[in-house]
Amino acid sequence: MSERIQRFMLFYAVMVVVLVGVRFMTKDSAQQLEDLQIQTGLLVAERAELQLQLANLESPSRVRKWAFDNNMIPFSSASALQLEFKPLKLLAPIAPVKQKITVETQWR
Fold first, then answer.
1. DSSP 3-52
2. Max CA-CA distance within the chain?
3. Interval 17-34: pLDDT, tens
C-alpha cells in the first residue's frame, strides 16, 4: 500500500472512532430532550393556571369584599374632616460665616 492510502485509512479510522464516541456520549440526548419538552409544557400550563388565579384574586369585586369584611369604609361614605393648618413660623435666615482658609504646603 502506498503511504497516501495508509494516511487516508488512518484518517477515516480516527473519524469513525470520534463519531462513535460522540454518538455514545449523546445517546440519552433524545430522551432528555423529550423529558424537557414535557416538563416545559407542564410549567407553561401551571403558569397559565397561576395567572388565572392571580386575576381572580386581584379582581375589584373581591378586593372590595375583602375591604368590607375587614371593616374598611368606602371613600364615598367616610366622614369629611376638615382641619386648618397654621403656617409655620419663619425663622430669620442664618448669615453665612466668613472664615479665612489657610493652606500650608510642606514639600518633602
1. HHHHHHHHHHHHHHHHHHHHHHHTTTHHHHHHHHHHHHHHHHHHHHHHHH
2. 111
3. 999 999 988 888 888 899
Structure-block grid coordinates of residue 79:
366622614
C-alpha distances (whole Å) from 26 to each of 12, 15, 31, 37, 39 are 21, 16, 10, 17, 20
Spatial distance between the Cα atoms of 78 and 81, rounded to a whole number of angstroms: 9
Claim: this prediction has a pTM higher than 0.70? no
Contact 56, 62 (CB under 8 A): yes
Convert 44-61 to b/e letters by CB count within 10 Å (16 or more is b). Answer: eeeeeeeeeeeeeeeeee
